[in-house]
Every structure is written in structure tokens, then in C-alpha cells.
Amino acid sequence: MTQSIIPSAPEDRKKIAGVVKAISDAMTRMEGEKEYIKEAKDALKKEFMLSLKDINKMVIDFHKSKFNERVQEIEAYSELYEAIFGPQDEE
Question: Cα–chain-centroid distance for residue 48?
């Protein structure tokens, strides 16, 4: 492991300290956002009786615009499964 070189210039130390503080502030905001996300998901689950699994899928599909990709994957898997095991009757 390489050892860091301690800057001798006060302005360099001040700049490093400023960036570390800015990163820490960003991490604090991220923690707050994570808490909001958890609370919002819990509220959806409680109010609408949705599973967290489905809420997470919807959030990810919406955020990453991946709904159509997910549907295509499911359709491809369904074709594979039915080719191997035949059509499945729903009970």
C-alpha cells in the first residue's frame, strides 16, 4: 500500500478539508434520501397492500426505463420454459 504524502501548503490542506466536508455533506443527504425512500415504500405497502418486491420492481423499471426490457425477458423465459415443460395450466 502506498502511503499518502501530507501536503505542506496550508491552501492544499484547506482544499482537501473542504472536499472531505463536501463529500460528508453529500453522504448525509444520501442517508436522508435513503430514509425517505424506505418510508415512502412502507407507506405504499401499507396503504395499497403492495409487496415490497413489486414496489422495488416498479421503482427500478421506472427509474431506469427498463419495463419493456423486463417484459421481453419474461416472455423469452416463458417461451423457453414452455418449450421444455409444455404449457402450464393455471390452478
Answer: 22
Report pLDDT digits (tens) over 10-24.
999 999 999 999 999
> Cell triple for residue 13?
490542506
Residue the block writes with cell 472531505? 20
DSSP 15-81: HHHHHHHHHHHHHHHHHHHHHHHHHHHHHHHHHH---HHHHHHHHHHHHHT-HHHHHHHHHHHHHHH
pLDDT tens string 45-86: 999 999 999 999 999 999 999 999 999 999 999 999 999 999
CB 77 within 8 A of CB 88: no
CA 69, CA 86: separation in Å to the nearest integer? 24
CA angle 49, 50, 51 (to 5 degrees): 120
